[in-house]
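Sequence, structure tokens reproduced for absentees:
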Amino acid sequence: MERMKLYPSYKASYLPDMGSIPAHWGEQRMKHSFVEVDERSITGDEEMLSVSHITGVTPRSQKNVNMFVAETNIGQKLCRPGYIAINTMWAWMAAMGVSEYEGIVSPSYGVYKPINETYNPNYLDYLLRTEVYQAEYNRRSTGVNSSRLRLYPDRFLDMRFVCPLRNEQDQIVRFLDWKVSQINRIINAKKKQIALLQEHKRAVVNEAVMRDAWSTRRLKTFLTESKDTVGDKSAEFDLLSLTKGGVIIRDVSTGKGKFPSDFGTYKVVRAGQIIFCLFDVDETPRTVGLSKNDGMITGAYDVFSISDIEPKFLEYYFIAIDDVKGLKPLYSGLRKVVNIDKFLQIQVPIPPITEQQSIVVQLDSQCVGVNKLIEKINTQIALLHEYRTRLISDVVTGKMDVRGVEVPQYEEMTEFTEDIEESDEDVEKTEEDSC
């Protein structure tokens, strides 16, 4: 942790969550530095940009995008270097940033053009996604619940933002770029460790469940679709989510994530049933999971009861298929949907039940150690993320004085990310998503 050096004197901030700011810093409304613009693409040939609370504004080509892709980009909003872009639906989570790129964003996004050079664009980019301003976006957004919250231009432009002198902003950016690069280097090394462990696990699973010598059976002979919905009893069910870590229970009490206003169409899930996501199959991080719990899950997914086969063997088999996105040849349409009748015709290699059970025991034993190690490294990464976030916040809001810090030469490093617009952990898919 950096040794905290304070400014000589402080004063109260206009923002209740900010506390104190350096006495010589100003606070000004955003409307004095930016104005909303609405320029549209004529050709649709510009780079499509993604706007995330994790990485700000970046080219969508660098992302694992798990969302609808329009047939044409004509009419999308233009966004230029130095402009602020705000993902309107996710502004309450600070899904915004200052663009370094020439490109286009969704017509529903807010785009704001600088009218002076008050702010260093990189300083402002750091500042916009700090927790103190995220809380203020949330307060200023309007809507019946989190999934309907919108931060409208007048409410954003009326916000006060801290404003150090420009040369001080420049030094803050130099310092943070250096320290963030150091942290990112450590994070990337740990992510490489995880990638190697996951590759090893994939090889072990694939070798165990893919055998040419076994006879095959169609999926429809041991899967029965379950279409029961929760209706008006959603309060009696835990909310489940399909993730790379399996089928998990979502904690809705935190308010994190985007949920529908009505869960009535969500499907009932019983422990031991298997869940498939049969659309966007090549972008969805994980398309299969065996549930250990009763609960409910979005109606966009397909839920099946299993008979006459070891359920965990079937899950391991489809995880191996999913790791290479083996269902891609079966999908069709813009949303890359796998027709359920076609899906149930898939031939699956099946060993005798005793061998299935033996394989499951073997894989559970081999994977448990790898999973624990991956979990440990992910915990370390989470702590590094927390430290990086706190460091950025402390420096850009004046809790830490870096004016006298000499920044050495260093190699700039960004974090390897797989975030989507927004992340799969934050978005609940709906029936409309699969259309």
Summary: The CA atoms of residues 51 and 57 lie 5 Å apart. Confidence is low (pLDDT under 50) at residues 419-428, 430-435. The first strand starts at residue 10 and ends at 12.
